[in-house]
Amino acid sequence: MSRRINWTPEFTALLGKVPDAELAKKIGCQQRTVSLQRRACGIPRAPSPTYWNDERARLLGTMPDRQLAKLLGAPRPRVTAARNQRGIPTFKKSPETPYWTQDRLALLGTKLDTEIAKKLGVPVNRVRYARNARGIKPLRSLDNDAVALLGTMSDSQIARLLKKSPETISSARKRLGISAWRRPPAFPSEHAHLLGTASDPELAKRLGVSCYAVLNTRKSRDIPACVVHLTPQQIELIGTMSDRALAKRLGCNSSLIASTRKRLGIPAFQTQKRWTPQERALLGTMTAPEVAKRLGRSAGSVRWAKRVLEAGG
Predict the structure, then answer these.
(1) pLDDT in tens, 73-106
(2) Which residues, other chains included, contact 48 with Cβ-Cβ below 8 Å and sequence gap of 6+?
């Protein structure tokens, strides 16, 4: 039977400060006796002197106990006990330096949110939230007059003209779905003799250049514009087919056909002509292609008319 230990204040003070085995040897009792007394007092065991070397001990208090325990692969209570036994205070996170410093806040509203976000390397939503939270109005990129310039010249030219950054012009243009300006092909000098012999749109289409290039080159050489007139035979064809189809057939611009038709009061060609009783009478008497060829219609329209007729339409 083990002898009863008189736990003097001196012995009690050593609980948890030195390993249980070392204290048991000093008192002259079993290690289990010391362990039971330490647990009864709610004192954690002393850290192993071989575990908490100088390198590990220096980490105590430099980060939260849970984080250090995970780093060392040790139980969190073991880390907490080692820190408390050495009188090291609990780690306290230093107040974080606010992200929106005065210099960064000064940028809000001076440029587009997208530009500021790109410059600071943060999401655009973070910039927009910071601006709205401080009641700063967003920069309106362009007014109506400036928007009218988009796509008519390069973004860099518009930027210089409006005294804005090229990024502002480019982002506004893309946001509005306006295509970037492309330099039109120069008018080929070897075809200068053709200027004034045909309408500017027709000549531009034939040479694969812009109508603007043809117009500018013709004016720079003081060559009058070509006035295109339709012959009486050509005028008779207006309204018998679409303006586009007739222009393709006559080799001219469809705008010439349309303007002539409107000037003479000729109604536009109707692609779906009404079926006359005589035409309806032919349906079903021969094949659809034969009826189509005879009436000058498409086989599809013949089949459609037949189905309508059979349905009682």
Answers:
(1) 788 888 898 898 888 888 887 666 678 888 888 8
(2) 19
DSSP assignment of the chain: -PPPP---HHHHHHBTTB-HHHHHHHHTS-HHHHHHHHHHTT-PPPPPTTTS-HHHHTTTTSS-HHHHHHHHT--HHHHHHHHHHTTPPPP-PPPPPPSS-HHHHTTTTTS-HHHHHHHHTS-HHHHHHHHHHTTPPPP----HHHHTTBTTB-HHHHHHHHT--HHHHHHHHHHTTPPPP-PPPPPPGGGGGGTTSS-HHHHHHHHTS-HHHHHHHHHHTTPPPP-----HHHHHTTTSS-HHHHHHHHTS-HHHHHHHHHHHTPPPPPSSPPPPHHHHHHBTTB-HHHHHHHHT--HHHHHHHHHHHHTT-
Token pair for residue 113?
């949110």
Quote the pTM value.
0.25
